[in-house]
Design a protein that fits this description.
Rossmann fold, disordered N terminus
Length: 236
Amino acid sequence: MHQTFDAALGINLLHANQEGADHNRAHFDAWGITCLNIMSSPGAGKTVLLEKTLSALNQKLKIAVIEGDMTTELDADRLRQYNVPVIAINTGRSCHLDSKMVAGGLHQLEHQYNPSDFDLVLVENVGNLVCPAEFEVGEHAKVALLSITEGEDKPLKYPVMFQEADCLLITKMDLAPYLEIDIDRIISNVCQMNPNATIIPVSAKTGEGLAIWFDWLQSQVPSTRTTSKTQNLTPV
């Protein structure tokens, strides 16, 4: 069946989502939490990046994760091994998290914990290079991942993701010697879309660039927040 796009409907959906995102952001600000929205195509390395991040920083920052997947809690279970609260959201057929879904995750977090105890909420969005960038969830910054196995042209073919990113991680750098890939071209294409993005080449396998990523992430959390947090997170 042929379908036409209803522009007004699309605008209304985005407007309603933005209202929800603003509501979520107000909660984050009231609780003194920084929220990062982490986005990429499937398999670019979001979950392993979070594993490395939680391992390195969960003694320095009080972190919670909202984990989005279309089905299963496989990634959520991986992250729960790091003894941080992980709220799993299954989106069904939806290819992204929206502000209403994240609001549901926040309500779960609020029911089980005192949200003001947290410094940082990491939202791992559904693997998709298109829709997650269109739907804000209340985040303070967007982080995009691009694996070098995806090719140099992705920032040009999927511009919104890269235009919206505050930080872009070029992942799987350990594979560079085995691929015909031009890292400088990737960086140039990203800068063409977004000259203000912080670009960090990383490898979860070798550790390349991870310290720079950890420093950037910590720079997003004002030090005045972390000094007032409790040392132990216990369910309420």
